[in-house]
Write a structure and sequence with these properties.
13 helices, about 80% helix, about 0% strand
């Protein structure tokens, strides 16, 4: 009995040891990759940390004690930044970003549904046209866009930015969501048709609920673009009351050249919404991109 027990314990121990064994080369490569990712994360996070810490400093301390923590925390910098213009820029960015996301995602899901459900030469031509939209550089179309918006009296309005953002973000949104819609089993839509469901009902009750991860991914991508876009926001908006965060910070910088603490406070306020959005929805971003890249 003792021999049998020894044999069984040896058989149960050695395979586990073999499974846990990792070659030295693999361990070294893993550690090198981890170290590289850690250094890359520090390169990204440290400037944000420095901006946040410096936003509580006075003008003199920012220059005299650059890398240290504030000797006196000036929380009033945030109140001053909000009162001196960041409030308007923040609300304008929220308005433009919200409407851009709403129109882009609604139009993108409907177009992706049609492109994934039907096949003919017109659908293929539309798909090629949409893919071509991914290659359009914003700087190339700046002058024609300005002329079109001037003709429709949209220059210096929020809709000049909203419609432009929707037009430039629709191709990527459609491609991502269509790739996910292709993976939806056709048996679901066929069963719904037998039960008397309309095409819009299939889109609304089947495809859209199943595509929540890729829809949230599209929301995050479009939100980052609309919130941080600078070129169109600078060219199409002239009045300071309608400027968004990126172009408004330029005016804010000129008005507060001597008060870097207040300026950095404004930059922190401008970055908070996107940081919160990414932290709250990061799992949906990774899941949506992975599921939406299976086919297409």
């Amino acid at each position: 009995m003792m021999k049998i027990e020894n044999v069984t314990t040896e058989k149960s121990i050695f395979p586990a040891a073999q499974r846990n064994y990792m070659p030295l080369k693999t361990r070294i490569s893993r550690n090198v990759i981890f170290l590289g990712l850690l250094i890359f994360a520090l390169m990204i996070l440290y400037p944000l940390f420095w901006m946040f810490i410096s936003s509580f400093k006075s003008y003199q301390e920012i220059y005299s004690n650059v890398w240290a923590l504030p000797s006196e925390w000036h929380f009033e910098n945030y109140a001053l930044a909000w009162e001196k213009g960041i409030q308007n820029y923040f609300l304008n960015s929220a308005y433009v970003t919200g409407f851009s996301i709403l129109l882009t995602v609604m139009s993108g899901t409907m177009a992706a549904f049609v492109l994934s459900r039907y096949r003919n030469r017109w659908i293929d031509a539309a798909l090629l046209f949409i893919i071509g939209g991914l290659m359009m550089n914003p700087e190339v179309a700046l002058i024609p866009l300005f002329e079109i918006l001037t003709f429709f009296n949209l220059i210096d309005t929020r809709w000049a930015l909203i419609l432009t953002y929707v037009a430039y973000r629709l191709p990527l949104t459609i491609i991502l969501i269509r790739a996910f819609f292709i993976t939806v089993p056709k048996e679901l839509s066929e069963s719904a048709l037998i039960d008397g469901c309309s095409e819009f009902g299939i889109y609304w009750r089947i495809y859209l609920p199943l595509s929540i991860p890729i829809v949230i991914t599209s929301v995050i991508i479009n939100a980052f673009y609309a919130w941080n876009e600078f070129l169109f926001a600078t060219v199409f908006i002239n009045s300071s009351e309608l400027k968004t965060i990126p172009s408004g910070l330029m005016v804010f910088r000129d008005a507060l050249r001597t008060d870097w603490g207040v300026l950095l406070s404004g930059m922190v306020i401008a970055s908070i919404p996107m940081v919160i959005l990414l932290i709250a929805l990061q799992k949906y971003l990774v899941r949506g991109l992975s599921e939406g890249s299976v086919k297409g």
